[in-house]
Amino acid sequence: MFKSFFPSPRLFFISVLVWMIFNLILWHSGGHAWGEYLGFPKGYAEIESPVGVSRFWTASSLWFYLWFLLATALFAGFWRFFSDNKWQKWSIWGSAFILFNIWFGVQVSVAVNAWYVPFWDLIQKMLSEGGGNIEDLYRETLTFLYIAMVAVTLAVINSFFVSHYIFRWRTAMNEYYTEYWDQLRHVEGASQRVQEDTMRFATIMEDLGVELVKAVMILIAFLPILFQLSKHVPELPIFGAVEHSLVWAAIVWAIFGTVLLMVVGIKLPGLEFNNQKVEAAYRKELVYGEDHEERAQPATLKELFSKIRKNYFRLYFHYAYFNLVATWYRQLDILYSLVVLFPAIASGKMTLGLINQIGGVFDKVRESFQYLISSWKTIIELLSIYKRLKAFESILK
């Protein structure tokens, strides 16, 4: 699954983590200002980013782009020297490009969140003062439009690239399995493993990986903002005064939901795995029946299908209460961020722009902490595919 596409997977992913942490430490311990040695304006790193699309080509942003490119080149060069995996251009440079696009998408969210304050405060001012200059509204709307145009363009490019990335990963797995086909062909459902499971595994891994990295990056970008905004919400409903109230409110609610769904959904991965096994056995008998008259007899097919029926009915039952709990949690989640702000709103010390900014930041952080909640069904499917492919690969050991 991994060694076909990534060079020495265990060491590779450890090195990715170490290299990312090393670069983060360097960046935040002064590296963000080192661009001055390359001719960037003095003090550029201390200048606050403007509200608008121009924040994407400030000196600070350009220096980060260059830093990211150099860090990726050094990392790729290291693995080029120590490994000859034919797919590592895609697995390293391709992954880096996707990672950069995730980071850029998070920066777009930060830019939109910064735009909330002047835009909504302008609306509040016009409503409270009996009107204003309509051109100011158009100007602020264009600011958002420019940000959105950059974001949408890059998102489309990234979507196109990711499609090719996934297919390359699937190709790598397909080549690996077909190379050992003589050993693997006798495994029940071998054709499904090579044709279908490789495709689904690559797709789901990419989706979950992107969402995980995005969740982490959103936390890195928005948690400091949420810490600052917490001073405007000194009290929480029921609990009263709480330091860093918004941060604690997001963490506690997300942990509660994650643990809840993990408990109620604990049986689902095993049932999904069994489902594929009984489906594969039924399909295999039907395929044999196409070429051999003595196979796929009604009694045999009835017995195999009864196993499918039994497993599906168990899945329906367990998904019923899982979906009930998940749906109720999501419904309460819609109200949660607003209820948290009730004490601060009732005090009358907040502007409309501040409410929208806090709501936006709080929702971003809360959703990031809820990564497992939003992805739990997909994780269940991935675990079942992983178990099937792992059992498939065990033949080669």
From TrEMBL:
Coiled coil: none annotated. Pfam families: SbmA_BacA. SUPFAM superfamilies: ABC transporter transmembrane region. It comes from Acinetobacter populi. It is found in: Cell membrane. It comes from the Bacteria. Keywords: Membrane, Transmembrane, Transmembrane helix, Transport. It is a multi-pass membrane protein. One of its GO terms (cellular component) is plasma membrane. The chain crosses the membrane at residues 12-30, 62-82, 94-117, 144-167, 208-227, 247-268, 312-329, 335-355. This is Peptide transporter. PANTHER family: ATP-BINDING CASSETTE, SUB-FAMILY D MEMBER (PTHR11384), LYSOSOMAL COBALAMIN TRANSPORTER ABCD4 (PTHR11384:SF59). One of its GO terms (biological process) is peptide transport. One of its GO terms (molecular function) is ATP binding.
